[in-house]
């Protein structure tokens, strides 16, 4: 089974949404993917993240903000994906077999629900592409460049 860790600063928004989206994409594809998320600091899952994920029928109930050291077998991942620049800078070194990817997404915190939806939809597209690549036996996409036209204030 492939193991994926998604890292962000507070594990409260982007990484939480990405975890649920990656898990769902893998489920739909029939791909065995063990997905976890964590932050460089633990806070709490933002209610806006819960709201916009519920719109897709995905629940963040039971999700908690956690640090890397709260994740089972924290140094044993096939892929580590950072979804914000500060997490990319603070991400620890992983053994040689771990593939790191950096997919920076705008922080929706403090923005409208439309901004949250735009970020959620960008995350969904990226992690669907991630799962599709793995399912096809390919490397995960090397990077992500956000489309400025979908970022909502």
TrEMBL record:
Domain Phosphotyrosine protein phosphatase I: residue ranges: 2-133
InterPro entries reported in the protein's UniProt record: Ptyr_pPase, Ptyr_pPase_sf
GO molecular-function terms, A-Z: arsenate reductase (thioredoxin) activity
UniProt keywords, alphabetically: Arsenical resistance, Oxidoreductase
EC number of the protein: 1.20.4.4
Cleavable signal peptide: none
Pfam (any one): LMWPc
Protein name: Arsenate reductase ArsC
Species for this entry: Deinococcus hohokamensis
């Amino acid at each position: 089974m492939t193991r994926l860790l998604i890292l962000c600063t507070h594990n409260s928004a982007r990484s939480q949404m990405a975890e649920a989206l990656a898990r769902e994409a893998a489920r739909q594809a029939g791909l065995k993917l063990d997905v976890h998320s964590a932050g460089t600091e633990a806070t709490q899952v933002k209610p806006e993240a819960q709201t916009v994920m519920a719109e897709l029928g995905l629940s963040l109930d039971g999700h908690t903000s956690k640090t890397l050291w709260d994740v089972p077998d924290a140094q044993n991942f096939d892929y580590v994906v950072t979804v914000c620049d500060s997490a990319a800078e603070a991400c620890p070194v992983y053994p040689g077999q771990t593939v790191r990817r950096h997919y920076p997404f705008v922080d929706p915190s403090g923005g409208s629900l439309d901004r949250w939806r735009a970020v959620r939809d960008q995350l969904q597209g990226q992690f669907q592409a991630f799962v599709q690549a793995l399912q096809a036996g390919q490397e995960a996409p090397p990077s992500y460049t956000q489309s400025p036209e979908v970022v909502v204030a």
